[in-house]
């Protein structure tokens, strides 16, 4: 799961627009429009538009498409959006952006992607070099830091399951980085592949057979759409887990450490705005994350019989009690 659609403009610019001009923006998301965890993110995006003077029906037209949990719909939906000749396209994650990039090499695309370089979306972060730019939501050291936090909470941890979508290149890189950190910490890892709902039973069995004592769950559309199922599984199996985004902690997960999706939704809008003002996406550097939020759910910790150390609580951006 992953997820990202934005168009904004500075109020002063918006006021300067000819009244008759309406900009068209198309967006593609690998997920469900009505999913309870999707709506708040879209609302954050829409509020950003309103705050900065962009109003649907006046100077902005939004054309959004959702796969509804079927990644095989990405290509036809991307072609459908391109055929409507929007001014800017927005890809909600690596998969949607790749589909859009395959459908057009001329219409500017703003992306939220885990690793735009590794995915082949841009030549390099400083100079994208083509019609794609935007924001990255992945830092390679995240996996190691999540494992360190889990080890602080569970000092006896010796085996951890790394849950994610191996079809996603950034996830594979994250697993590699986490495995390196695990060797330093003396923790054995169990790679558990989750690409869709049909993989969940096999993943559950692998976690049990591997005698995992905890989990690290990567953020990806494949895990995001099963968010509640994964959180419930961890609770039922009494497995302490660290997740990639706060939505898992909000749903009852023990802890999350990663970028704020809502913040990314708002910040990606600046790229769309600059492109609408005439900037070339090829010359707009891809923005890398500089701030990560740590969310601790004390209710989940209590249910697991865990005492979260004061060293972790002191670093938390938010504590759910």
Average pLDDT across residues?
A: 87
Unreliable residue stretches: 1-18
CATH superfamily of the largest domain: Response regulator
Q: How would a textbook summarize the main sheet?
A: 7 strands, mixed
Cα gyration radius (Å)? 20 Å
The sequence of SSEs as H and E is HEHEHEHEEHEHEHEHHEHEHEHHE
| Residue share in helix | 25-40%
Q: Could you tell me the strand content as a percent range?
A: 15-25%
Q: Multimeric state of these chains?
A: single chain
* Strand arrangement in the largest pleated sheet: 7-6-8-9-10-11-12
How would you sum up the global shape? elongated
According to DSSP, the number of beta strands is 12
**Assigned CATH architecture of the largest domain:** 3-Layer(aba) Sandwich
State the helix count.
13
Q: What is the CATH class designation of the largest domain?
A: Alpha Beta
Count of domains? 2
N/C terminus separation: 26 Å
Q: What would you note in describing this structure?
A:
Helix 2 packs across helix 11 and helix 3 packs across helix 4. The N terminus is likely disordered. The chain has 321 residues and is an alpha/beta fold. The strands form two sheets. The chain has a seven-stranded mixed beta sheet with strand order 7-6-8-9-10-11-12, with helices on both faces. A five-stranded parallel beta sheet has the order 2-1-3-4-5, with helices on both faces. Helices cover 38% and strands 18% of the residues.
């Amino acid at each position: 799961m992953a997820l990202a659609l934005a168009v904004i403009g500075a109020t002063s610019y918006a006021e300067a627009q000819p009244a008759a001009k309406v900009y068209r923006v198309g967006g593609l998301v690998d997920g469900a429009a009505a999913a309870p965890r999707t709506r708040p993110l879209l609302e954050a995006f829409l509020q950003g538009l309103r705050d900065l003077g962009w109003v649907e029906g006046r100077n902005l037209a939004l054309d959004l498409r959702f796969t509804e949990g079927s990644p095989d719909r990405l290509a036809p939906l991307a072609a459908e959006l391109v055929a409507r000749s929007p001014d800017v396209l927005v890809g909600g994650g690596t998969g949607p952006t790749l589909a859009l990039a395959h459908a057009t090499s001329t219409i500017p695309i703003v992306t939220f992607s885990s690793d735009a370089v590794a995915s082949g979306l841009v030549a390099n972060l400083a100079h994208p070099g083509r019609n794609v730019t935007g924001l990255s939501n992945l830092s390679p050291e995240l996996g190691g830091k999540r494992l360190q936090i889990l080890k602080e909470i569970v000092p006896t941890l010796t085996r951890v399951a790394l849950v994610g979508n191996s079809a996603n290149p950034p996830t594979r890189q994250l697993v590699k980085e986490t495995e390196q950190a695990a060797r330093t910490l003396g923790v054995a890892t169990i790679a558990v592949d989750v690409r869709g709902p049909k993989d969940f039973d096999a993943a559950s069995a692998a976690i049990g057979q591997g005698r995992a004592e905890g989990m690290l769950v990567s953020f990806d559309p494949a895990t995001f759409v099963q968010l509640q199922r994964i959180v419930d599984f961890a609770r039922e199996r009494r497995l302490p887990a660290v997740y990639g985004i706060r939505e898992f902690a909000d749903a009852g997960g023990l802890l999350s450490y990663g970028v704020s999706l809502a913040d990314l939704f708002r910040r990606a809008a600046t790229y769309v705005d600059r492109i609408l003002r005439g900037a070339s996406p090829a010359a707009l550097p891809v923005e890398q994350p500089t701030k990560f939020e740590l969310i601790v759910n004390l209710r989940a910790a209590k249910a697991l019989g865990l005492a979260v150390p004061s060293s972790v609580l002191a670093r938390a951006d938010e504590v759910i009690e």
